[in-house]
Amino acid sequence: EADIYQTPRYLVIGTGKKITLECSQTMGHDKMYWYQQDPGMELHLIHYSYGVNSTEKGDLSSESTVSRIRTEHFPLTLESARPSHTSQYLCASTRGTGGEYGYTFGSGTRLTVV
Amino acid sequence: RKEVEQDPGPFNVPEGATVAFNCTYSNSASQSFFWYRQDCRKEPKLLMSVYSSGNEDGRFTAQLNRASQYISLLIRDSKLSDSATYLCVALQGTGGFKTIFGAGTRLFVKA
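^ inputs. structure came back:
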């Protein structure tokens, strides 16, 4: 039973389109994250939030933006999609002060930009 | 050099075998460690935390060696359902500010 939901599950979109990947969690976690993962590769942090109105960029340079207006909702937006954005995007949340209790991940969005 | 390194495998083992994975980390400031399991085209799921004294959860045993900066995962009596990619994770800084994921070790358990 998922407590963190991502939509859409798969998305194929043309170059230059604006897209928003949705992420919602029902656990009341303050900390939420967006990771990018290519096949067979490690996860790279692209954005994180420690609570409402708090957003930070992660280690991976990204042309995306995020917002955190509500605790449960952490959408990621690409203003102009490019083929280099083709990847899997994973949303995660955690309780506590960091990841010491482990992360709960959503099922991911597989994005293909053509 | 990657901050968390794992042998990508794949490890191909028969059912019932014992298999061990190692993971090395380069930053001695790493505080906490975890193993995650990721099935093909699925999201990672927390398998177990790794404690300094070592810990066991059923067929799975995790060990931490701070002096040599590596952690290990031992799986006994492998099942077909253990086939997955196992991700090593290190948290750096107090409060787990920075989380580093390894690229994972692939395991295939054969009948």
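The longest strand of chain A covers residues 44-51. Chain A has a mean pLDDT of 92.
thumbs up if we can close this ticket
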